[in-house]
């Protein structure tokens, strides 16, 4: 248990409470969910900041980032083969989060057979971003109560908080209040997820530290110390690539599908986060396995899912019709993803066009 706690991030209280059927994640836009507007516990923000800090997690994150930066001095002490190996390892860790914890287990946007699910689960421990159950639970709460006090990484509390600060401070009481109602029974019923939960600490030690240290040592002859230090560089990059979706993709960028929500479209976030930066689309249509209307365009995760589908490891990919996407852009978007002639229309004309498309569908 001690090992498990050392390798986890975030305040350690678990959400508990009765799961209500009406609070299950919805296929609809998250804005349709009942949104909490005020805190149930006003004393949370009145308490001194030092009393709200999750000191254990904060120290772990600080140490990892310091070692990650320091590990740059070891880049010249390993072979090009090792650097290529570490790059592939970084990509696998990212794809396991995006294709696995996010699109498969959180949103159920496609189905995967046991071999691919097991592969994603093992690679997910390379990323070391908490076990699959905990990652998915937090993300479901984020979608249902996005950008409120019940959102674990609420952007309204600042860019730093939504990026990394939410892991360094105790969760807001609203996160527990509303998070306890999120249905995660499907995760508990998945034997692959249960295995990940039970052996998470040992799996992280093996796949995030053991293999990337020992395999290049025996395959390419590099020294153990530089290889071990590069694990912290990989984690530092992987963490910040994922967190950029929570922070920058809720802060800057276009909103072509819903101009009234915070999530936005940020190209560079899609580059580093394997296609997760098309975030305005994703929050509008959370159960589309593409997480974008652009298909493979800067979307390495969709490429992987489609590749696995071609060999029979992925089935039942959920998508949104082009007509539904266009209606959404016409009714609620900021116009940035519309043809010029449509952008020049009045709002009334756009709504009429949206109605015409709906009637023709």
UniProtKB/TrEMBL annotation:
Tree of life domain: Eukaryota
Record-level GO BP terms: unsaturated fatty acid biosynthetic process
Residue ranges of every copy of the Fatty acid desaturase domain listed in the record: 86-287
UniProt keyword annotations, A-Z: Fatty acid biosynthesis, Fatty acid metabolism, Iron, Lipid biosynthesis, Lipid metabolism, Membrane, Oxidoreductase, Transmembrane, Transmembrane helix
CC per GO annotation: endoplasmic reticulum membrane
UniProt membrane topology term: Multi-pass membrane protein
Needed co-factor(s): Fe(2+)
UniProt GO molecular function: iron ion binding; stearoyl-CoA 9-desaturase activity
Intracellular or extracellular location(s): Membrane
Transmembrane segment boundaries: 61-80, 86-105, 199-219
Any matching Pfam family: FA_desaturase
Alphabetized InterPro entries for the sequence: Acyl-CoA_DS, FA_desaturase_dom
Family assignment from sequence similarity: Belongs to the fatty acid desaturase type 1 family.
Record text about domains: The histidine box domains are involved in binding the catalytic metal ions.
Name the UniProt record assigns to this protein: Acyl-CoA desaturase-like
């Amino acid at each position: 248990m001690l090992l498990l706690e050392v390798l986890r991030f975030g305040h350690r209280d678990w959400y508990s409470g009765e799961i209500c059927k009406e609070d299950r994640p919805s296929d609809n836009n998250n804005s349709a969910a009942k949104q909490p507007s005020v805190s149930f516990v006003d004393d949370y923000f009145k308490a001194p900041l030092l009393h709200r800090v999750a000191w254990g997690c904060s120290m772990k994150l600080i140490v990892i980032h310091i070692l990650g930066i320091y590990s740059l001095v070891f880049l010249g002490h390993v072979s090009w083969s090792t650097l290529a190996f570490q790059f592939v390892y970084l990509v696998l860790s990212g794809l396991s989060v995006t294709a696995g914890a996010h699109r498969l287990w959180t949103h159920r946007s496609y189905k995967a057979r046991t071999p691919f699910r097991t592969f994603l689960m093992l690679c997910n421990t390379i990323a070391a971003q908490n076990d699959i159950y905990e990652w998915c639970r937090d993300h479901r709460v984020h979608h249902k109560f996005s950008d409120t006090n019940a959102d674990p990484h609420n952007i309204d509390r600042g860019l730093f908080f939504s990026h990394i600060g939410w892991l360094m401070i105790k969760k807001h009481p609203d996160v527990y209040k509303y998070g306890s109602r999120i249905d995660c029974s499907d995760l508990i019923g998945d034997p692959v997820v249960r295995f990940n939960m039970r052996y998470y600490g040992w799996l992280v030690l093996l796949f995030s530290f053991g293999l990337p240290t020992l395999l290049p040592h025996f395959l390419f002859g590099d020294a153990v110390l530089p290889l071990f230090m590069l694990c912290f560089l990989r984690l530092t990059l992987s963490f910040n690539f994922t967190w950029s979706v929570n922070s920058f993709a809720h802060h800057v960028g276009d909103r072509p599908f819903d101009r009234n929500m915070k999530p936005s479209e940020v190209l560079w976030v899609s580059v580093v986060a394997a296609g997760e930066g098309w975030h305005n689309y994703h929050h509008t249509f959370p159960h589309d396995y593409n997480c974008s209307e652009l298909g493979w365009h800067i979307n390495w995760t969709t490429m992987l899912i489609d590749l696995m589908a071609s060999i029979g490891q992925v089935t039942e990919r959920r998508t949104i019709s082009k007509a539904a996407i266009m209606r959404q852009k016409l009714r609620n978007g900021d116009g940035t993803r519309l043809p010029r002639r449509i952008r020049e229309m009045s709002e009334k004309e756009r709504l009429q066009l949206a109605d015409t498309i709906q009637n023709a569908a």
